[in-house]
Design brief:
With about 550 residues, this protein is mainly alpha-helical. Helices cover about 50% and strands about 5% of the residues. A hairpin with a 2-residue loop joins strand 6 and strand 7 (about 490). Helix 4 (about 105-110) crosses helix 5. About 15% of the residues are buried. Keywords: Membrane, Signal, Transmembrane, Transmembrane helix.
């Protein structure tokens, strides 16, 4: 049986008594019949201003509409603002009043939301912002109690993101005030544009400053840490995303409403129809939230992939590698040594073709390496992302070069001749499966008329005219997601583009493995590789 220490019991008891005392005090304040409408009759007037120099600059105006939409709209003003005893109080102008310590923000939130106040006390703002030996940072430094609205801690709206970030930038862009509170630092020493982050504009428009600058173990988003300790890319772009963890900190009413769906307990269809009839967030989206789906119609690199798909691709790649390894081993053990003969050289690969080939190969390797690192959240994600984006844009130029080279005379090698194609495919397949082990002649040698055998030709046509263009299109849509349609073929656009890009990359990986192995199937292990360096195709007369 779980036991609770005496210290915890005393803590709960003290909090309960304090809360009871606060409620009693608030009730007494209500009895004075000083209601909010009386206060707002003056404070909702935009012409209100301080009448003494002591309050010069004080924020006295409260927009009534904003106040009525705030979380404190039903809280009496006098629950927080109280007069000192023995004076005219709020009836006098200027008011002789004070907000006593027992009625500070912490007096309420420290009881029912003590995790928030505990995190706030550890914030860098508390430890660093001092003036004259006293801390100058309080709840009111960020939050306006009169306009504070309920916020979704893990999935804020665009408006809530902008509003939250405005609180931070409002202080961090005030040159004089920032310098005074930060111990002499200049505003220009900050990188408020976050230029080092890939897709900085997208991050700043989708995330709040606190999403990254709160401590990684802080689910309340109130323990702001020094910039050097900010959340790294990997803490969100991973399977154990901190954004997912924070989602479970404060479940919303929508989560609760859909939490029993899709569990086989009720008639799900009727419950979803009932939830949808009430308006608001669709029931299906509520189910996605409860089941841990991070975003709707979006893709967060490294965070919301599909483990089953990853596993299937890895098994397929491993199986292909095993087949190629066994094939190569059999070639070494069984194949007979080619009879001696004279080597022949034919110039087939022009300089533009070779330049394109090696640029294309480099792009493929860098894109695959950086893509794998991002997908599995390895290393410095921002560096990998920059490398992936730069290489992807380079591949666009390289593909344009490929088209230009083909238009200038190399394109006939990619024209598939259907006449006798099936027979040629069968002969080439038989050669790779059997003939190569017995030292048989190649069914088709490269020539100026056709550099590729039929299997190579179909493979290269499929890769360069189908897979690469689709990779470029889906990659550009991921780089510039604002141009991605919301719906494609009836499916969420961003997710469809992301998964298509991933599958195309997997196909490219498998092609690259086969291509590298086939480079060893010439009349010697390095014959074909040398050809793509100096442009000459080499073969033995005895192998013809």
């Amino acid at each position: 049986m779980k036991t609770i220490s005496m210290g915890k019991w005393l803590g709960h008891l003290i909090r309960s008594l304090s809360l009871l005392g606060l409620l009693t005090l608030s009730h007494g304040a209500l009895a004075t019949e000083v209601n909010n409408s009386q206060c707002l009759s003056c404070h909702s007037d935009s012409d209100i201003h301080a009448v003494t120099s002591d309050n010069a600059g004080a924020k006295l105006f409260i927009a009534e509409e904003a106040y009525q939409e705030s979380v404190h709209a039903t809280v009496p003003c006098v629950a927080c603002h109280q007069s000192e005893q023995g004076n005219a109080g709020f009836d006098a102008l200027p008011h002789t009043q004070t907000t006593v310590a027992t009625n500070s923000c912490e007096s309420c939130h420290g009881l029912v939301q003590h995790k928030i106040t505990d995190a706030w006390k550890n914030s860098v703002h508390i430890s660093k912002i001092e003036k004259d030996g006293k801390n100058k940072f309080s709840c009111e430094s960020c939050h306006d109690a009169h306009t504070m609205q309920s916020s979704v801690i893990t999935k804020p709206t665009v408006q809530q993101v902008a509003s939250s970030n405005a609180l931070c930038t409002d202080c961090h862009t005030r040159a004089v005030e920032y310098q005074a509170l930060s111990g002499g630092k200049k505003v220009t020493e900050q990188d408020l544009t976050h230029a080092s982050i890939p897709n900085a504009a997208l991050h700043l428009g989708s995330l709040r400053c606190i999403d990254c600058h709160a401590g990684s173990n802080d689910l309340t988003l109130h323990n702001i840490v020094p910039a050097k300790e900010s959340v790294s890319c990997n803490q969100c772009h991973s399977d154990e995303s901190i954004l997912v963890q924070r989602r479970h900190f404060a479940p919303t009413e929508q989560n609760i409403a859909g939490s029993r769906l899709n569990q086989g307990l009720f008639d799900d269809k009727s419950l979803q129809d009932k939830l949808n009839s009430l308006g608001g967030i669709p029931a299906q989206q509520e189910i996605q939230w409860v089941n841990g789906s991070l975003f709707n119609n979006s893709y967060l690199i490294g965070a919301n992939g599909d483990v089953r798909l990853d596993r299937a691709i890895m098994w397929l790649a491993a199986a292909l590698l095993l087949i190629l390894a066994l094939h190569g081993l059999l070639r070494l053990v069984i194949s007979k040594t080619q009879p001696g003969g004279q080597w022949h050289k034919t110039y087939l690969y022009t300089l533009p073709v070779r330049v394109w080939h090696w640029l294309n190969a480099l792009c493929f390797i860098l894109l695959l390496a950086s893509g794998i690192a991002m997908h599995f959240s390895q290393g410095e994600l921002a560096t990998w992302a920059d490398l992936h984006n730069i290489t992807g844009l380079t591949l666009c130029a390289v593909w344009v070069l490929f088209i230009a080279v083909n238009l200038l005379g190399n394109g006939h090698h990619y024209v598939v001749k259907l006449n006798g194609l099936l027979g040629r495919l069968l002969r080439q397949t038989r050669y790779y499966l059997f003939g190569i082990f017995r030292g048989e002649a190649h069914p088709e040698h490269p020539s100026a008329q056709s550099k590729f055998n039929p299997l190579q030709q179909l493979g290269y046509v499929g890769v360069m005219y189908l897979i690469v263009p689709l990779l470029i299109i889906t990659g550009l849509l991921m780089l510039y997601p604002e141009y991605t349609p919301e719906v494609i073929f009836g499916l969420p656009g961003k997710q469809l583009v992301a998964y298509s890009h991933y599958l195309l990359a997997a196909m490219s990986l498998l092609f690259l493995l086969v291509h590298l192995y086939l480079c060893t199937t010439g009349d010697s292990l390095t014959t074909l590789l040398k050809g793509m360096i100096d442009g000459y195709h080499r073969h033995k007369s005895g192998g013809d």
